[in-house]
Structure prediction request, 235 residues.
Amino acid sequence: MENIIKSDGKYVFKAEIDNSLVNSIRRYVGQIQIAAIDDVEISKNDSPLYDETIAHRLGLIPLKQSGKKEGKLKLSSQNKGFVYSGSLKGDFEVVYSKMPITLLSDGQEIEISANIKMGKGQEHAKFSPGIMNYRQVSEIYIDKEVAEKLKSTFPNVEIKSKGDKILIIDDKEKEIADICEGFAEKYGKKIEIKPTGEVIISLESFGQIDAKSIFAKAVEALKKDLSEVAKKLSK
Prediction:
């Protein structure tokens, strides 16, 4: 396995793994348990937004996962201007404090009480911790003339000679196979793309948990379900 980008918000790595397995892991991102605002009681709302709109916005505010499975958040404001997510106070902290909820004018007021519960992204997007995608690593064989044109346009592309052919390894965060195909078509030259058996896996976090943990927890959830299936088959 080779790390390409590693941060709390984004994790990109290269690994030799079967497509069907990595696709199963991707699907199980929706099985990770995440805490999010579920029920909202709006006792006062003089803002121009409907209660339903505000409730929807509240549900999509990412919360820092504290180990608690439920809790409450409250918001009360009479201040003119935007009401931001950072005004929510209680058992959980918001990930981003400057997400706008609504706007108040002079004399207007808003008062909210929100209940938090655990859920899965499969049930609702508000419980989703992030997104995962993957693609194949490829060897691209192209004509020398196309390679020179490609290099002048994209100077960071690594180009190697392999016999009488020019080889580009498409193994970075951004895919270049489509670009190479476009150049080859433009200049009427042949191109050959061969999968290597490795894949580039990319995860982006919405902030509740870090990107690497999303992958680990998705694997854990998949293993748990497979274990349950194995137990039932053994009976």
Summary: The chain has two domains: 2-30+131-203, 34-123. Helices lie at 19-27, 51-59, 144-153, 177-186, 211-234.
